[in-house]
Amino acid sequence: SAPSRMIETASNNHWEWPTQGKVTTKYGDQGNGIASEGIVIAASEGSPIRAAGEGQVAYVGNNLADFGNIVILRHADGVLTSYANAREILVVNGDQVKQGDLLGYVGKTGNVQSAQLHFSMRVSDASVDPLYYLPPTVASR
Questions:
Q1: Is residue 111 helix, strand or coil?
Q2: Where are the beta strands (DSSP E) in 28-68?
Q3: Taking Cα atoms as reference points, which of 27, 6, 10 lies closest to residue 119?
Q4: End-to-end Cα separation, the chain, in angstroms
Q5: What CA–CA distances, in Å, run from 24 to 3, 80, 92, 94?
Q6: Are 16 and 50 in contact (CB under 8 A)?
């Protein structure tokens, strides 16, 4: 488990849900030796993907086969968030984004069968459970 200092650093920021939808895959052990380093949010294709927090675009691309089109943001305190399986991405490397800014649209690129957003968080290079940091329910915009 992550050291408490890291947990406090990331949780003191007030993160927002990156899209609206139902969490269909939780973080961690999925059985059969498979583990998820993030959560999967089932959402309608074309739904907006928004920055969970203020940061800088560190990576945009589709070089990770399972994840299709992906955006990775670098935030303060060594926190990274990633937004995968996007249909379209509207930001480029180096862009500064504010919390809630539109990053792109939900899709089904990569190795997935239905429209979804794979969302993950890393704190000091360790994968963490996003549900620990996100508000308990998805706030409507």
A1: coil
A2: 28-31, 34-36, 39-42, 48-50, 55-61
A3: 27
A4: 33
A5: 27, 22, 28, 31
A6: yes
Q: Return d(Cα 125, Cα 122) in angstroms, integer.
A: 5
Give the span between the Cα atoms of 77 and 90, in whole angstroms.
25
DSSP SS3 for 135: coil
Cα 13 to its chain centre, rounded Å, is 15
Stated length of the chain: 141
Please enumerate in sequence order all residues whose Cβ is within 8 A of that of 31, keeping only pairs 6 or more positions apart, or say none.
none
Q: What is the pLDDT along the chain (141 residues), one digit of tens a residue?
A: 444 445 455 555 589 999 999 999 999 888 888 778 999 999 999 999 999 999 999 999 998 878 999 999 999 888 999 999 999 999 999 999 999 999 999 999 998 999 999 999 999 889 999 999 998 865 544
Phi and psi, residue 83, nearest 5°:
-130, 105
DSSP state of 63: -
